[in-house]
Amino acid sequence: MLAFDSSDTPPTTEPAIKKPSHGSESYLALVWRRLRRSWTGMIGLVLVGLLILMAVFADFFAPMDPKATDVGFAPPQVMSFHDKDGNFVFQPRVYALSDSEELDPVTFQPIVGMDYDNPRLLGFFVKGAEYKLFGVIPADRHFFGSTDGQPVHFLGTDKFGRDVLSRAIIGSRISLMIALTVVFIVTLIGTTVGMVSGYFGGTFDIWLQRFVELVLAFPQLPLYLALTSLIPVTAPTNVFLAFVIVVMSALGWAQMSREVRGKTLALARIDYVRAAMAVGATDRRIIIQHIFPNVMSHVIVAVTLAIPSVVLLESFLGFLGFAVKPPLISWGLMLQDTATYSVIGSYPWILSPVGFVLVTVFAFNALGDGLRDAVDPY
């Protein structure tokens, strides 16, 4: 007879199921986790954050007063870590240009050289031109510049001797403000019209879409030029700026409304929307509680992709002289100095604002591509 060994019996209790250490992730947490996997999206997010930070604290990051004049069309000053004897030094410096008494045998112009006897030492958080932070707080500290307050032109000067880098940094405030304001208005109007048109449908949708098609049929560029030329030159700068924003917004909402309408037409036929209608939910509640959250993912991506278009449009109109007027500063207005080929060939550094426009367009496009993959992984 075999003896029964209790150690051979299988355990009667089932192993405990390990629970995850963290709770269920929200939709925003899932979007953020997917966005972090996109290196292009993260680069775009960092660049967009830096651009917004630069625009908010533009006076602090600008090394000089954007309205101060020095010498017309001075080339960029290169930062150096060597003294006049060629020895390495830890504190960076720049050398101003000086005209020598010798003349060029071909052009008979004074030969320009470096003034090694008077270096301008560079540093962080230096004193410079006075300004008001946020238009209220008086300050004179700048992020980077010369320690003795002497003019430093890292990107050269324009024809009036104004520092190009400082003007480009200050100009980011106007350019980004116009872009963000226009996109906000376009998104608000386009999303509202698109959801209402797609949800109610019928005759209301037909007539509303005919009006949208009429707006889309207008040739936008000639209409921009015609509308902005209606403002007299003597009008205040704030009025002119507001009119430009209104014109861009009035012609830009139609495309957004068509995209949102297409999403709404598909969502209006989903079971949970029909169930809400069956239980007697109001149209306002269905649009706000059920349709709007589901179109937000598309709207967010559309916003990040629309901002570069507005920046390019403002730069183009500013180059033609139909956007921002002096004394305001924008990237498009700065590019007016590049209207002639001879100026570009002789002073190529005045094309520097193009670099700011390219970085802005790349940053928002990269962020938009990353968000598009994050909010819709399929």
From TrEMBL:
Any single biological process term in GO: transmembrane transport
Gene Ontology terms: cellular component: plasma membrane
Biased composition regions of type Polar residues, renumbered to the chain: 1-11
Spans annotated as Disordered: 1-21
PANTHER family from the UniProt entry: D,D-DIPEPTIDE TRANSPORT SYSTEM PERMEASE PROTEIN DDPC-RELATED, OLIGOPEPTIDE TRANSPORT SYSTEM PERMEASE PROTEIN APPC
Coiled-coil regions listed: none
UniProtKB keywords: Cell membrane, Membrane, Peptide transport, Protein transport, Transmembrane, Transmembrane helix, Transport
Domain ABC transmembrane type-1 residues, every copy: 172-368
Localization: Cell membrane
Transmembrane segments: 39-62, 176-201, 221-254, 299-324, 344-364
PROSITE patterns for this protein: ABC_TM1 (PS50928)
Protein name, as recorded: ABC transporter permease
SUPFAM superfamilies: MetI-like (SSF161098)
Family: Belongs to the binding-protein-dependent transport system permease family.
Record InterPro entries: BP-dependent_transpt_permease, MetI-like, MetI-like_sf, OppC_N
Membrane topology note: Multi-pass membrane protein
